[in-house]
Automatic annotation (TrEMBL):
GO terms for molecular function: methyltransferase activity. Specifically methylates position 2 of adenine 2503 in 23S rRNA and position 2 of adenine 37 in tRNAs. m2A2503 modification seems to play a crucial role in the proofreading step occurring at the peptidyl transferase center and thus would serve to optimize ribosomal fidelity. Its EC number is 2.1.1.192. [4Fe-4S] cluster binds at residues 145, 149, 152. S-adenosyl-L-methionine binds at residues 201-202, 233, 255-257, 336. This is Dual-specificity RNA methyltransferase RlmN. Binds 1 [4Fe-4S] cluster. The cluster is coordinated with 3 cysteines and an exchangeable S-adenosyl-L-methionine. The gene is rlmN. It comes from Acinetobacter corruptisaponis. GO terms for biological process: methylation. Residues 1-10 have a biased composition (Polar residues).
Amino acid sequence: MSSVAVVSSENMDEKQQSVSTPVVQATHTKVNLLGMSRTELEKFFEDLGEKKFRAGQVMKWIHQYFVTDFAEMSNISGKLREKLEKICEIKAPEVVHRNYSKDGTRKWVFRVGDGEGSLVETVLIPAEDKTGARKTLCISSQVGCALDCSFCSTGKQGFQRDLTPAEIIGQLWMANYSYMEDVPVAERERTVTNVVMMGMGEPLLNYDAVLSSMQLMLDDFAYGMSKRRVTLSTSGVVPKIDQLAQDIDVALAISLHAPNDELRNELVPINKKYPLQQLIAACQRYLAKDGNESARRHVTIEYVMLDGVNDQPEHAQQLLKLLKNLPSKINLIPFNPFPHAPYGRSSRNRIIAFQKTLSDAGFVCTIRQTRGDDIDAACGQLVGQVADRTRRAEQWKKKVAQQQEILRTQG
Ligand code: SF4
């Protein structure tokens, strides 16, 4: 599920402002330490003839104090600092635009890659919860996406490339740093409380980079986040869900969006390869693995509400049946239309009725709040700057219009 997308420079919202990145710019021959896992960094220091524990020290400087200048790493000897300066760098993706909304939502546009590179977005959404102020960062894993979900602006742009671990973790680094820029190094702390791998791209199709980035998120020498607060959201790459179960314990979300195969084949085409029965079984296996672990108590089901398409009473009934043996929480997402989107947003009443059906059956079912409207950063499909003129979209527009007509004539 993508809540962010690539935007072209010409289409930038005028409220976005160019900024210069504070990160050290260095030559390409230098090794970027930002995306390295603890194991990789330990090996790096051992190869330099240094002790392994240097890895933990440097990780804390990078990920907990947001330092990019080796000269500031005061518990590292001057000689080693000089050596590191020569051969390494700590380099997050370049921030080309940033917007901070009045409601606390923050959005960054990063340039990744050499030269003009590509642009990706990251969004931070604040909320109050039982434990206090929550700050949830929605992180991208790929530039574009190959999966072409019919309601998704990212999918319409095709796939460009996978992000590297430094480009993935760099989004979290920069979001934290944005609160600490003016804070003295010794007083800096991590501010982002939750991460969802739910931005642009299908994270399970960039498996290794996403896995090592999530390991850094959980690592006490880096972000030390609770496994319950790191969520991977997938459209349903079944074999990789099984692999994930073996490799890391994080929360799992499924971009479901349809309660039957026929509709899901249209909305989320990967369903043709891994139909619902297989997907639900994979979720059950994921929860069964280390079932007592707190991150695996339930799966979050993401369901975007598309007017007249998947929001009817029968769809709610089908969803109840589908999920009856899967511990799950359901998150209804009001669709955020982008230009030429083939769908509209379900009415508030329709969404509430849908929620009631699910809640009455005993499911925890929430409606996602739309946030950050003043910077074009609402959840769901937020960019709205990508023109979707594909033939497929046109066909869908017609189909949706026909369905709405049928509903109207049925009263
Ligand atoms: S998996 Fe589907 S919803 Fe997610 S980014 Fe790709 S096309 Fe969009």
